[in-house]
Amino acid sequence: MEKLEKSMWIAIIAVVIITVGGYFVFQGTGNNDHAESPIEDTEQEDQEGEEQGDSGEGEAKENEDRSPSDHQSFQHMEYTGDIAPDFSAEELTELPTNNWITFGGNIYNGRYSPLNRVDENNVAELKADWVTSLGSGFDFKYSGEATPLVYDGVMFTITGANNVSALDATTGEIIWEFRPKLPDDLDTLCCGWASRGVALGDGKVYVALLDARLVALDQKTGEVVWETRVDEWEKGYTITSAPLFYDGKVYTGIAGGEYGIRGYVAAYDADLGRQIWRSYTIPAPGEPGHETWPEDNDAWIKGGAPVWQTPAVDPELNMIYFATGNTSPDLDGSNREGDNLYADSMLALDADTGEYQWHFQQVHHDIWDLDPANPVVLYDVEMDGEMKKGIAQAGKTGWVYMLDRTNGEPLIGIEEKEVPQNENQKTSPTQPFPEGDAFVPQEITEEDIERDLPEDFEGEVGSIFTPFWDEPVTIKPSPQGGGNWPPSAYNPDTELFYVLGNDNYFAYAHYAEDEANKFEEGKEWIGSIWQPISDAPFGGTVTALDIKTNRIVWQKEWDTIAYSGILTTKGNLVFVGHNDGRIIAYNATTGDQVWEFMTDAGANAPPITYEVDGKQYVSIFSAGNSLAGTKHGDKIYTFSLDGEFESLEDISDEDINRSPIQSDEAEEAEEQNESQGSAVENGQKVYENNCLACHGAEGVGGHNGPNLQNSPMLDDDDSLIQQILHGSGAMPGFEDSLDEDEINALVEYLKSLKNEE
């Protein structure tokens, strides 16, 4: 009996050892495991794996190429601030005052602060308090789109190169820097290298890297705590949005709608980096919504619906909200008959499980790239004597969609109306038309043609939802919007919703034999041809709409696209960045401009505000934007009523905080430029760093630029050089950023792209 008992205890101990050991092995390898999702069954996951290829080989290659030890962290100062807690739902829904702890100010994404030490009466006295050069993101391929976070006097921000910095929020001195190791051949980014921010919570800074990795950094040192591979960038899966920390989880969405991916949102354990759930934005066979995709092909597997922005959360309803991007291929609907859910939709999921709650599709069967890239905003407002839980989202269509966030039903009417049809494109018979005002023009008039379009302009023109096929059709809004990624804001004091809009002319056409129509994994797949109309104007709008009626209260028109983001405050102010480098303040009620400050680069990121020791600061990352074609830089400008510098001219080099390691990066860049190679090879590197975001891989056409393979300039070196040097239309000149050798190499590469047919 004693012998049996001893044997039993040995067996029990062995089981315990195996169980515990297995647990830690699971945790160690769990970063790459995919938890079973409520919007997907394992059978369908296996089917998708067979269709798209086994990811095991890519995973092994990725892990071999790079590990967390490849990243670099540099500590420059002692970190003296408090460590961020595991923020509660109450803390995350509080309006931002001393701190700015989430992408949108709080998890409602409203970008409203109740701070009012700076108000409409004294905002003219704002001066630059400190300026910090972050030391990265200079190349034209980078875009500075980040929203900084602030907690207990420390600011956390990220550049387009994915370099993260912690700064003293009162002086701008750099406390630590994190410089990740990204693949040298990373090329599956449709819209330039950009990151829109980081997340913060439980003593960690969470970073979504462009190569689809999620990294947690120690808040005090910037050292890597854990790293998770979300997906494979080689297949087109990337991440540009800021992650969201909520309830012990880190949420992120996958980008890459131009590469034939299947979009999704996923939640990760904030302590371990292990995936908790993943919810695909395109339903598999047998799931609700799949009936809106063809049954006789696999269009749903590579159907797009990426997630470009940071979600919002309502803890009371336990729902997470976001909008999905374009169908794939963007412009060719001929092989994906149906409405194509849940692309171009606002979606609500259970925050704990990722289970579908409701959706609203803004564009059925999108063939115009009119996807909703703007972050959703949650708000509470009294309507008809009853408090409503609202959600608003500014679409590329030029409308704001205002829904009840409890069920997805419109708070303000939205009517399905018949629209023009094209049999080849399998167009939807109707589209949703919200009541209220559009914040950009949605049609091209005879007056527009006479005023804006070149004399030799030929082709059809149309309005929103006009279809196209093998003959060019020029319409508004363009793929830039309407509303694009720059975040909107809601002010509960004025009850106005503030949104940035773009107004320009784009032509679409479908050519069956064009390279853009052929799917190849990891290659951009647009499906048709699009390009801006040469020499036509690009405009923008800053608009305030009544949240109860969706009617315009005031609007400012710009002679360039509006491409930054909005902050609004209890001081009756709206702050916004401008392409020319200005940060501008408007009276939130009337729209009157009340202040501006010119920075040294395109101010293409959203401003924030925070308070330390009773002093209110306003801050913006001014670093330029490749798609906006603006001047590049690397600086954060922070303002206060006690600031010292009235203008840029007052700020000397000695007044600027600088990264202690940026000189090393400059030396490395110089060494790379001096490396030997053929003119075409060197020119390709110049092209990828400066032109690819707008003109697409191999010049086939991107989000702003025309197809270069058919350009007559390729037969005229002098014209090509002059275009590169000085630019025209929406294209910037590169006279100040490229040297003679780089321009000559670029010319040789562009000539190599010429389509002889």
TrEMBL record:
Keywords: Electron transport, Heme, Iron, Membrane, Metal-binding, Oxidoreductase, Signal, Transmembrane, Transmembrane helix, Transport. Residues 678-754 form the Cytochrome c domain. Its cofactor is pyrroloquinoline quinone. SMART domains: PQQ (SM00564). SUPFAM superfamilies: Cytochrome c, Quinoprotein alcohol dehydrogenase-like. The keyword Electron transport applies. Residues 38-57, 664-673 have a biased composition (Acidic residues). Residues 32-73, 650-680 are annotated as: Disordered. One of its GO terms (molecular function) is oxidoreductase activity. It comes from the Bacteria. The chain crosses the membrane at residues 7-26. Belongs to the bacterial PQQ dehydrogenase family. This is Alcohol dehydrogenase (Cytochrome c). It comes from Oceanobacillus limi.
